[in-house]
Amino acid sequence: MPPIEFVRNLRAKHYRLTLRRDGTPVATIPARGTEKQARAFVKEHSTWLRREYARHEKRPRMAAEWSLGTKIMWRGEMTEIKRATGGERPQVAVGADVFRVAELWQDLRPTLEGAFRSRARIELTARTWELAAETGMDVKRVTIRNQRTRWGSCTEGGVISLNWRLILAPVSVSDYVIYHELMHLREMNHSRRFWRAVAEVCPDYQAAETWLDEHGAFLGF
Ligand SMILES: [Zn+2]
What we know:
The protein is an alpha+beta fold. It folds into three domains: 5-58, no CATH class; 71-109, no CATH class; 113-219, Metalloproteases ("zincins"), catalytic domain (Zincin-like), CATH 3.30.2010.10. The chain has helices spanning 35-44, 46-58, 109-135, 171-184, 192-201, 205-215, and strands at residues 5-9, 16-19, 25-30, 71-74, 77-84, 91-94, 97-100, 141-145, 152-154, 159-163. The strands form three sheets. It has a four-stranded antiparallel β-sheet, with no helix packed on it. A three-stranded mixed β-sheet has the order 1-3-2, covered by helices on one side. A three-stranded mixed β-sheet has the order 8-10-9, with helices on one face. The protein starts with a strand and ends in a 6-residue tail after the last helix. The mean pLDDT is 92. The structure holds zinc ion. Zinc ion is lined by residues 180, 184, 190.
């Protein structure tokens, strides 16, 4: 386990122990707390921490560098990067999709992630307009972004932003995130009314939430 990070938070009222997505345990020291007490707090919760860390370790994640043969999450499936034949320039196949690369024997991740992002810009944007029409929501603009910590967001003005990494997830999951943001145009909060509206347009939303929770690490967070 990585060493525990002790972070003082002047607004915190209590000691708190959390596990960041990258697996680093973070102990929060409240305004009037001490590191010594924070260490005692961590010790008290060591069983919880070990269990959470074990869960974190078991979650599959993307390799840091990608080459031919690496398995990556693509459209909801672990998919091997393969050499694609044909074409004058080197290209690789990820499932049914083919992407051009500059060079087959270098880290393919930067090139492929760039290509995935362009693909996401086309597909997720089109899908958002489609689902906006289906639900009768008034969307002004769709942007595809590279957020580090969120899947999507929206503004009251009707601008929906989606994380390009949603293209790595199953369609049922990216659809859920789009429906979620669309329903925020009706309810700008996470009230029960909001979740009822989500359930109406996306009855399986809880399964999608679980998928996102379990596979966040896959998507590079
Ligand atoms: Zn929300």
